Design the sequence.
């Protein structure tokens, strides 16, 4: 810490701080246009000029000057105010005065400063810019006439998003912000540039002219898409969520969001939301009352083990706990599960046996502290973009090493010095086993590894996985495997990251165990910047595991439940928010299960394909209409409050479950807050938490590890017959689960399913970009739009699973790799 | 005091008024003269066959009676315009702040003061009713 004087006030600041940071830290406001907490200092706008006595009273920019001991700083002398007014006058010289029609008005830094410094007239005259305005992009509108050239958009796109879509083009007074060759914006549409723009140059098109900034009520919430657990601020007007608002002080990610979080909110206030309970009468779903619907459901739930349930991990912890209580105590069944039964296996089976806890042993914050990141599948970026931004920053700003094991290239492989080992699809476990064996054989393992239970068995089980044999099977060289092993062992802190989810059936317990073995062998766990981070798919996937909403001893898992429906042993199925017809493997199997069911209850936001098959449909609330807690992938428990009032005719899942418990003769705590106290008392790591204590910010539930070596089973390497391609499923960057289909933003940029194939395969089968191709597997065939990309290796095709119009489960039956033919 | 004096004084006033022009305005057969700065019914100014209003929301923001409803949208030329512009005359206090706040001289107040109506819904003046007629 250094001591300095700011405006006659004695203050202290960290040694690494700039004058601007020191002032902000001590409550002195310095006006600035080109600074953001997350970005490196730039010094473009010259608004933050201050006088430093030691520098003979010269005016220097506060945002780029580091503090030194004994500095005497003045932030608002008459000379400085004069200089700032001059800067504003010069900016306003070219800036159009169209505040009445500019959506930034009210939240505009330039407008606020102009008002604050009372720049009412201009001594200079000059023509305004006459740049063409880009209205064509569905999400980001660019009006460079309003630009003040602070460079924040170009910097955030480079430093954090690492895409580089925007940059300064031309020189001198001609300078402007634009895309390559002055073409339209074709990027990831995360909207980070919009969030940092101090003026109205970059605006969110979905929010265009919807409301003025001052008319919005700002509600803090937690994002309802992936498991990263990003914090959101929702802008609400007239009980409708109209936009998301940027707040650089929110969450570990400092307000940074991805395309889904920023632009995917429309499902909350969608017109298509269900508004009344529906009951099937004479084969048709007709509007009904809550009393009738719930009485009907309660009657059917008395079936005991004939009843099964599937819940989405988008429900709150309280709802999942209550649903489990309803099923176990009042219905008397053990048949319930979530996320297709395997998307959580990495946690519930893999980590549970390797670390003794069904949770990741590392947090997202460890990414910034690690020296080497071993990412399994480049899809980690697509599934969890904000985690991807953290990886970008670790690699680009801190120089962390990045090694990637993947069946295809991706955004992450483009990072500086990223090493991508492209292997044949489905062989991750074999490679991790080979690395583990190299660690053991080459004596790279830590000395303490032998003391961990199961060491001897592991050594024996890995004997077949020599680098050479595995290398020939998976298509990477033995030297690469050995290099990766030695790099991993040599790094002081190393973190393994892999995504899990319904489309990643290969990322199962064995993969988690194999990854955990590397961490255990080298002692890289339970330490800062070390461990294994499983990126669970949905916003409360980890919470669903923590609440124990997983297959029970003697109960069925999700896929077994569907089998049991088909063979008649399960007669009543309660689906809370899942959409198996789109997201579960093997469409034919799911359809057959639903056909055979006697009674299907679905609680949903929308009339999904699954809900359309139900006997009773219960309309429920989205996360913005209820209170509760979500647990993010790294066990951060976060409380969120409702942002809007729910419609009088819909209920929260909590209300439905508690109503059913009462109808079945049980008793429940009246509010989620009281139930959470019960949850906190008995869930490991949640002790001491309550809605009140989590109100300000989320808290980590610590993970106690009890390491053990388990030999993972490596699947036999996938070999495609000639003429067949290997189909791998996964997540698209713009979507998460099937909910994002109801968010307009994601659907603007990625409206339909597609199949991505390599240039080599495209020319082999004479397929061009955008062609409609027939993809056929052993279980079915479907038509998909082709995308030809350089990232796919020859022989591998990729397709995401989010789309109900063309569900990939028509041809995919749950195996990590499916042999398909592609033809025009 | 002489008890007659007040009666005479009173009669003086009475007689004086008998020869004065009557104050009562025989409304509606006679019309009042409205001052030019009178704040009556609002009107939306028109320019180039379009309402001048750019839907900046400054009038609903400044309105102390919260009687103005504006909804904005983008037209074919990407310009902002008001799809909805409604004033609830039952709530309006005719303060004229909306006119003062308007940055584009789109709203004015006319000399129109006869606003009585039979139904509550008729007091909601829509954009069509407010537009200046040619």
Sequence:
């Amino acid at each position: 810490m250094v001591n300095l004087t700011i405006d006659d006030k004695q203050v202290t600041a960290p040694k690494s701080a700039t004058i601007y940071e020191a002032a902000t830290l001590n409550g002195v406001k310095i006006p600035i246009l080109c600074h953001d907490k997350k970005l490196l200092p730039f010094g473009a706008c010259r608004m933050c000029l201050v006088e430093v006595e030691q520098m003979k009273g010269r005016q220097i920019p506060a945002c780029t000057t580091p503090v030194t001991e004994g500095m005497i700083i003045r932030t608002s002398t008459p000379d400085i105010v004069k200089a700032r007014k001059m800067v504003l006058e010069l900016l306003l010289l070219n800036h159009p005065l169209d505040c009445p029609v500019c959506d930034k008005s009210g939240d505009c830094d330039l407008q606020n400063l102009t008002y604050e410094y009372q720049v009412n007239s201009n001594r200079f005259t000059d023509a305004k810019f006459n740049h063409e305005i880009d209205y064509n992009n569905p999400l980001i509108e660019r009006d460079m006439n309003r630009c003040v050239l602070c460079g924040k958009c170009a910097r955030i796109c480079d430093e954090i998003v690492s895409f580089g879509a925007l940059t300064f083009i031309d020189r001198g007074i001609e300078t402007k912000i634009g895309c390559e060759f002055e073409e339209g914006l074709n990027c990831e549409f995360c909207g980070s540039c919009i969030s940092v723009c101090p003026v109205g140059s970059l605006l969110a098109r979905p929010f265009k002219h919807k409301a003025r900034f001052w008319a919005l009520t700002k509600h803090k919430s937690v994002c309802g898409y992936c498991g990263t657990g990003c914090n959101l601020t929702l802008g609400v007007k007239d009980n409708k969520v109209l936009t998301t608002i940027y707040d650089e002080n929110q969450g570990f990610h400092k307000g940074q969001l991805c395309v889904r979080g920023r632009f995917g909110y429309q499902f909350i206030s969608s017109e298509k939301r269900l508004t009344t309970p529906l009951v099937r009468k004479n084969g048709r779903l007709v509007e009904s009352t809550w009393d009738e619907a719930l009485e009907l459901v309660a009657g059917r739930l008395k079936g005991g083990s004939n009843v099964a349930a599937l819940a989405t991990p988008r429900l709150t912890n309280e709802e999942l706990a209550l649903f489990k209580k309803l099923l176990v105590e009042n219905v008397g069944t053990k048949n319930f599960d979530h996320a297709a039964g395997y998307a959580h296996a990495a946690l519930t089976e893999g980590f549970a046996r390797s670390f003794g806890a069904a949770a990741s042993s590392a947090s997202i914050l460890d990414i910034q502290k690690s020296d080497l990141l071993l990412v399994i599948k480049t899809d980690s970026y697509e599934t969890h973009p904000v985690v991807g931004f953290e990886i970008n920053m670790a690699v680009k700003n801190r120089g962390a090493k990045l090694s990637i094991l993947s069946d295809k290239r991706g955004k992450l492989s483009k990072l500086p010095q990223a090493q991508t080992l492209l292997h044949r699809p489905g062989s991750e476990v074999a490679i991790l086993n080979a690395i583990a064996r190299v660690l053991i054989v080459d004596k790279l393992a830590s000395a303490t590894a032998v003391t961990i239970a199961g060491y001897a068995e592991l050594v024996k089980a890995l004997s077949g996985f020599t680098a050479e044999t595995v290398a020939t099977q998976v298509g990477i060289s033995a030297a690469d495997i050995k290099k990766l092993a030695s790099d991993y062992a040599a790094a002081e802190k190393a973190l393994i990251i892999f995504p899990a989810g319904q489309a990643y059936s290969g990322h199962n317990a064995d993969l988690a165990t194999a990854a955990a073995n590397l961490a255990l062998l080298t002692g890289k766990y339970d330490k800062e910047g070390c461990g294994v981070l499983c990126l669970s798919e949905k916003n409360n996937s980890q919470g669903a595991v923590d609440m124990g909403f997983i297959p029970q001893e003697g109960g069925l898992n999700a896929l077994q439940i569907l089998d049991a429906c088909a063979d008649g042993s399960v007669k009543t199925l309660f689906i809370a928010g899942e959409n198996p017809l789109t997201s579960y493997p093997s469409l034919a199997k799911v359809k057959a299960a639903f056909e055979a069911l006697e009674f299907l209850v679905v609680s949903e936001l929308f009339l999904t394909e699954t809900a359309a098959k139900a006997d009773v449909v219960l309309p429920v609330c989205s996360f913005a209409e209820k209170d509760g807690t979500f647990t993010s992938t790294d066990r951060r428990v976060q409380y969120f409050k409702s942002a809007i009032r729910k419609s009088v005719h819909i209920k929260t899942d909590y209300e439905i479950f508690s109503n059913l418990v009462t109808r079945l003769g049980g008793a429940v705590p009246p509010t989620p807050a009281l139930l959470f106290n019960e949850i906190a008392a008995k869930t490991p790591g949640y002790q001491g938490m309550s809605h009140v204590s989590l109100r300000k910010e989320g808290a980590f539930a610590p993970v106690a590890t009890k390491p053990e070596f388990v030999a993972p089973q490596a699947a036999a390497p996938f070999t495609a017959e000639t003429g067949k391609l290997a189909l791998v499923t996964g997540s698209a960057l713009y979507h998460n689960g099937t909910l994002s289909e109801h968010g307009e933003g994601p659907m603007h940029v990625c409206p339909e399913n597609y199949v991505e194939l390599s240039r080599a395969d495209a020319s082999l089968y004479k397929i061009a970009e955008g062609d409609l191709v027939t993809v056929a597997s052993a279980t079915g065939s479907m038509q998909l739009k082709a995308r030809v990309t350089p990232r796919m290796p020859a022989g591998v095709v990729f397709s995401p699973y989010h789309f109900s119009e063309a569900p990939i489960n028509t041809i995919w039956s749950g195996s990590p790799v499916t042999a398909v033919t592609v033809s025009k | 005091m002489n008890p007659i004096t007040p009666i005479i004084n009173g009669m003086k006033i009475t007689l004086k008024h008998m020869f004065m022009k009557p104050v009562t305005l025989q409304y509606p057969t006679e019309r009042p003269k409205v001052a030019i700065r009178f704040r009556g019914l609002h009107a939306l100014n028109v320019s180039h066959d379009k309402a001048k209003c750019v839907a900046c929301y400054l009038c609903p923001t400044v309105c102390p009676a919260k009687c103005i409803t504006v909804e904005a949208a983008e037209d074919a030329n990407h310009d902002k315009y008001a799809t909805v512009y409604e004033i609830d005359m039952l709530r309006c206090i005719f303060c004229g702040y909306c006119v003062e706040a308007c940055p584009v001289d789109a709203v004015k107040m006319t000399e129109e003061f006869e606003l009585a109506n039979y139904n509550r819904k008729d007091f909601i003046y829509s954009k069509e009713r407010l537009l200046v007629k040619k």
